[in-house]
Amino acid sequence: MFRVHAGLPGRALPEEAEVTEEEPDWQTVKSELLEGVLKRGAMVARVGDPDLLADVAPGQRPSDLLPQVKSMIVLGGSAPRVGEWNSPRAEVLETVGTSDRMAAIGSALARQIEERLGYYAMNVPTSTDQDDKPFLDFTAAAVAAGAGSPSLAGPVLHPEHGFVYLTVILTSLPLPFDGPIEQPACPAPSCVEMYDQRGVTPCTDVCNIDDGGCLGGQIQDGLVIGRRYDANRCRDRVYHYWVPGYQAVLEKVLSEPDVERRKMMLYGSYFTRTMWSITYSNVSQGQCFECMRVCPVGAENRMLK
Amino acid sequence: MYARVPGGRREQDAEVTEHHDRPTARGELSGFHVVDPDLYREYRGRVVRMSNSHQVNINEFLPDTVRQRAMTDAEIAAELNLDIRDVTEIRVVAEHDEYPIEEYEASARFKDAAAESYRNGGVKNLYKGDPPPSRNPAEI
Predict the structure, then answer these.
(1) A211 vs B: CB within 8 A
(2) What's the domain count of chain A?
(3) Torsion-angle region of residue B20: left (phi > 0), alpha (psi -120 to 50) or beta?
(4) Is the pLDDT of residue A127 over 90?
């Protein structure tokens, strides 16, 4: 196992600890860390340059969370199983949000970096910040590290695995960067072909922003341009049986003067399932996959016998 | 007598004047700040248009001439000469308020129809348009 200089100020080393002053082989450090998380279940593990996120909204940059940040490790994986993708019941995919599994691997890696290497590490919280926004621009972090590329549908797509859940570990370890991937996963060749023929891609066909859905955009010279996205409608579909739905019902209930109608609302199927989802926490957050169900990126992995 | 003992409860109506810039003070200042409904009605549309709700070319790493990053609450507050706490509240309420409660049932019907259409014919057979009026095929 490599040993590097302790990076946490004020943290005493064991007396017998041997501290070497020579520069560690950071590529070896990186390889050992990433091999470890791949063994623990991550499907994608890449390192990005946090300075590439200088252009994202203030407050959602790596240095806003960890001032000492020198690199960011982006992990992806834990997508729904093939059987879940192929279920005829939309409700199956609705209930298989498994981002918490990636967060657990990220937390273990952050702990490993701090306790064994002595450098700061933070697994960025995947919950919402106080202003109902994410703590970090996860899309930008994933793209900067090459964990995938932005998509017309929205989620970052890995060229081989397609949709994956992400977690980001910010660290003061000066790991070598992988950098963005050269060939974007979106649009896929079959989407370019479909767009040339019909003016839509699978995702913009099933959830078209001009036809009651969330997504729009064009493809020109093989690139997505003019992407449009109705975030509020998408949220209502993704968090259908979750906090936004709970708030909407609560507003309705509080303004309902009839006691018996209030009872029907509170004990009814919609509010009941919403409460189940909320109390199962984020294992029930993956509630709309329809743009991803039809996406060809990684689709070959979603076919078994 | 201290207006506020660190870690203790603040006396009712005590003025919060110290350490406003501390991150820990932010929640205390805006944790249950309720926006005035008249202010909400007046600025709702503008705040939503300037924020992340309706995105056009917001993606990072697009050329500067193309990218239209959404404004932060602080930037919107400066542009509209509003208190940032009001902007945050107007934005968060409006995000939840944009579609009526019926949208949630429509979401269920959309997902049923979308999954079914893909299962029956792949990308050449995708469901299009508004959700069907019922989850029961016999009623459509």
Answers:
(1) yes
(2) 3
(3) alpha
(4) no
